[in-house]
Each structure stands twice: as structure tokens, then as C-alpha cells.
Amino acid sequence: MMHKVGQVEVICGSMFCGKTEELIRRVRRALIARQTVQVFKPSIDNRFGIESVTSHTGQTIMALPVADSASLLANMNSDTTVIAIDEAQFFDHGIVEAVDELVARGLRVIAAGLDMDFRGEPFGAMPQLLAVADEVTKLHAICVVCGESAYLTQRLVNGDPARYNDPIVLIGASERYEARCREHHVVTR
What we know:
Distance between the termini: 52 Å
Low-confidence stretches: none
Strand content: 25-35%
Strand order of the largest sheet: 5-2-6-7-1-8
Helix content: 10-25%
Number of helices: 4
Radius of gyration: 16 Å
Number of domains: 1
Order of helices and strands: EHEEEEHEHEHEEEEEE
Number of strands: 13
Shape: globular
Structural class: alpha/beta
Largest sheet: 6 strands, parallel
């Protein structure tokens, strides 16, 4: 079933806040509604498997890994009505134009990603995706230090906070990252 009007839904927040769980929930609802869904992920994210999107709590759904936004468009099926994109922050800036094109075709696009990097700065194309979104859901994790709401992702290197000039992209999970509130988020200069 084709949608009458395309739309963009962006799910964002820090690591461990449930972005992928929410993406999977929305995909499952679309499947229940007998919509044709394709799920994409960046090929650099192989933490939990190459052809699946998996939440930190173990929920999983099949996904097609692609290298960039052009590959995503090239792998679109003509009957697809819902596109889900996990880890959108890892895509090139062409992802914004790709999403605009999909929405213009009448598709529903659901994108999930980190809105800020480990330094607490906007991450990749996420600011532009958030700006063009019809709906934004910002989720919060729990700070591992104090238990308050966590808005930031703390990168750890051998148990210590990462340095500001460390590479932005470093694929990992709980072995490298923690959710932190603003008070307990630290970036070494």
C-alpha cells in the first residue's frame, strides 16, 4: 500500500537509549499493516551481524548493508513503501537528498541515529535529517554514573574518557561507550 504523502521520521539520542528498538518496533508495525518494508544499515556497522539490525537488548530484524546513500537508492525495490535506515549518522551527506527523493516518491522513511558524537557535537548528516523530518523522537538513556537522564555518549579508551581529537567514527558498544548526563560527560582536551 503506497502512502498518499511521503514522510520522514527521525529517531535520535545517545547510545543505549533505545533508538534501534524503536526503529524495529515501527518496522514491525508497518509489516503488520502489510506494507512493503526495506531496512538498510551502513556496511561499516558489523557489531551484531552483517545483514541484520540488532538492538542492545537483542531485538533483531534483517537489513541490507550498503556503503553509502547512492547504494541505498540503487538497492531500492520498486514496490517498497517504507524505508528504515539504522545508524544514519554513518551515511554520507547525500543521505539527506536520498531521503528527500524517497519522500517525494510518497515513501515513509524512518531513520535512526546518534544526534551527537562522543564529543557532544552534531554527528554527520543528522542535523540536516532532523531539520527536514516531519516527526522527531528524541530518546534518552540512563546515566551510568548518577542514574539521571543521559543525553550524551561517553567514549572510553582503556577506561578513561576519549580525547577530543580522537577519530569521530569508532564502531563499538558497551566495551567502548557509556550513556552519560551532561554533568558526567567528559572529553579530554
